């Protein structure tokens, strides 16, 4: 079994990942360009470089949650001095299956934070609690899967969800705060 450091070494840089994208590339870049951190958040993240963290990101360009979370955590990583390396989920199932959501789901993105020796320090993903609540509410409004209108209604729901993810700055901040809460636990 590969170590986290070995997985990290195999990962793509941010530029390589973005260049490889065929879905959600413009949306991801738009969120990255528009997302800002408060001075308080910047001050916190700027205390982290001394910890010398790095992270493996399990992701895929088709994933709406990745479209939202990757650019926000990229921005955080810049202030925190965290080097990120990207692995495409379906090409790295051996690692993905070690980080299942609820023990069953290959939900992404997953950010696996580690020290320089490759020791796991924190795992975050796939969603901030507020985003999870939103998708649960949206799914709750869908008709039964047996309903002839289900497929159309589901597609409409995903379109609305994607629009909200790309425009709702409160959701962006919920990702930031959720990641910050996880990283705060590492400050001793």
| Biggest beta sheet attributes | 4 strands, mixed
Mean pLDDT: 96
Helix and strand run: HHHHEHEHEEHHH
Distance between the termini: 30 Å
Number of strands: 4
Which helices and strands appear, and what pairs or packs with what?
Blueprint (H helix, E strand, L loop, with lengths): L3 H7 L3 H7 L4 H10 L4 H7 L8 E6 L4 H17 L2 E6 L4 H4 L13 E5 L5 E5 L4 H12 L9 H18 L1 H16 L4
Parallel strand pairs: 1-2
Antiparallel strand pairs: 1-3, 3-4
Account of the protein in words:
The protein is of the alpha+beta class and about 190 residues long. It is about 50% helix and about 10% strand. The chain has a four-stranded mixed sheet with strand order 2-1-3-4, sandwiched between helices. The chain is globular. The two termini are about 30 Å apart. The model has no long low-confidence stretch (mean pLDDT about 95).
Summarize the structure.
With about 190 residues, the protein is an alpha+beta fold.
Features:
188 residues, alpha+beta, 4-stranded mixed beta sheet
């Amino acid at each position: 079994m590969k170590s986290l450091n070995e997985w990290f070494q195999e990962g793509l840089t941010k530029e390589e990942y973005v260049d490889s994208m065929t879905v959600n590339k413009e949306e991801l870049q738009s969120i990255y360009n528009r997302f800002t951190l408060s001075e308080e958040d910047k001050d916190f993240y700027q205390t982290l470089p001394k910890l010398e963290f790095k992270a493996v990101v399990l992701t895929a360009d088709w994933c709406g949650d990745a479209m939202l979370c990757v650019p926000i955590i990229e921005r955080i990583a810049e202030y925190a001095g965290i080097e990120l390396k990207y692995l495409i989920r379906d090409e790295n199932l051996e690692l993905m299956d070690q980080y299942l959501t609820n023990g069953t789901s290959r939900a992404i993105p997953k950010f696996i934070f580690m020290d320089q020796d490759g020791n796991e320090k924190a795992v975050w993903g796939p969603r901030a609690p507020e985003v999870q609540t939103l998708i649960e509410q949206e799914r709750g409004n869908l008709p039964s899967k047996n309903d002839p209108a289900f497929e159309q209604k589901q597609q409409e729901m995903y379109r609305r969800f994607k629009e909200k993810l790309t425009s709702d700055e409160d959701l962006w901040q919920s990702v930031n705060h959720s990641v910050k809460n996880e990283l705060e636990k590492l400050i001793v």
